[in-house]
Amino acid sequence: MILQVEDLSYKIGSTWILRGVSFNLSRGEFAGIIGPNGAGKTTLIKAIVGDLSDYAGRIKVTGRVGYLPQNPERNRDFPISVREVVAMGLYKERGPFKRFSKSEWNRVDALLKTTGIEELGKRRAGTLSGGEYQRLMLARALVSSPELLILDEPEAGVDEMGKSSFYRLLEKLKNEKNMGILMVSHDIGMVFEACDTIMCINKTLHCHTSADMISPEQLQSAFSSDLDLFIRSRDHFEREHRL
Ligand SMILES: Nc1ncnc2c1ncn2[C@@H]1O[C@H](COP(=O)(O)OP(=O)(O)O)[C@@H](O)[C@H]1O
Ligand SMILES: [Mg+2]
Q1: Which of 19, 33, 42, 223 to mutate to test the pocket of ligand 1 (most atoms within 8 A of CB)?
Q2: Handedness of CA 93, 99, 101, 102 (dihedral sign)
Q3: Which ligand 1 atom is at minimum distance from the Cα of 39?
Q4: Which residues form the ABC transporter domain (predicted)?
Q5: Position 144 in a domain
Q6: Distances (CA, A) of 211 to 29, 41, 141, 182, 207
């Protein structure tokens, strides 16, 4: 088990944001988190990556974590190259005040290749398109060779073509590196296609099951406050199961 979340609860003032959330994630498992806006998905991710301290419950991570936050901050004018942004992902383990070694740069270049942006290494990061920038953020999240990869709505700003190749890349990483992947997504169709397990979250964990076992009732209970998203997910479900 690479991640264990046990009875996690969090409240702001007197409002519960998360209540009694428990689940485990194994290496080689690709889990998709779905749920309406404001359901607490980003809050859950923040608790797991250590950006939230005052929660109740237990979180145990066994291994290195790579993290691609929701809407990563982007300064288009900052004079930094794509290669340098990826290399900065190494700061956590080696500190910012040492020159990068040849082997560290090799690691960076290998990842630019893996994520399909090797042609862009010398470009100023601010000039990248939405899809290219998400690949850059993925490369940065991967540079410390994490065993657990966490992504919060990585498809934002990525077009349909870009989306499916992005998900294929995640599946490949899962298989080749035996990584555990936890991904929040609004793209229900893609989540059903790419993920092994699905978690429906709306303050509490409404369901957690393998992607082909989920029932319309389970989706309905999680999405009752977000009808539009629910209808889209139900349409997808009916297509998949030819109801
Ligand atoms: N700093 C904060 N202060 C007050 N409310 C917050 C804060 N951060 C998040 N929330 C609230 O917590 C709820 C869950 O937010 P979030 O985890 O971002 O949801 P999601 O990612 O599922 O859309 C929302 O109702 C949001 O408004
Ligand atoms: Mg969010």
Answers
A1: 42
A2: positive
A3: 22
A4: 3-228
A5: yes
A6: 12, 18, 26, 14, 11
Q: Is 43 in the pocket of ligand 1 (CB under 6 A)?
A: yes
Q: Quick check: helix, strand or coil at residue 22?
A: strand
Query: What's the 69 CA to ligand 2 centre distance in angstroms?
Result: 9
Q: From the CA of 151, which ligand is nearest?
A: 2
Is 169 part of any domain? yes
Examine residue 58 and state whether it is found in any structural domain, yes or no: no
Tell me the one-letter amino acid at 215: S
Residue 164's domain spans which residues? 23-52+63-241
- Structurally, how many domains does the chain consist of? 1
Kindly give the distance from the C-alpha atom of residue 32 to the centroid of ligand 1, in angstroms, as a whole number. 19
Distance 21 CA to ligand 1 centre (A): 16
* Residue located nearest, by CA, to atom 25 of ligand 1: 38
Per-residue burial over 132-149, b = 16 or more CB atoms within 10 Å of its CB, e = otherwise: bbbbbbbbbbbbbebbbb
> Which domain CATH number covers 210?
3.40.50.300
* 138: in domain: yes
Tens-digit pLDDT string for the chain (243 aa):
999 999 999 999 999 999 999 999 999 999 999 998 899 999 999 999 999 989 999 999 999 999 999 987 788 888 899 999 999 998 877 877 788 899 999 999 999 999 999 999 999 999 998 889 999 999 999 999 999 999 999 987 787 778 888 999 999 999 999 999 999 998 888 888 899 999 999 999 988 888 777 777 777 766 765 555 655 666 666 666 554
Residue 15's Cα: distance from chain center in Å?
A: 26
Q: Is 37 in the pocket of ligand 1 (CB under 6 A)?
A: yes
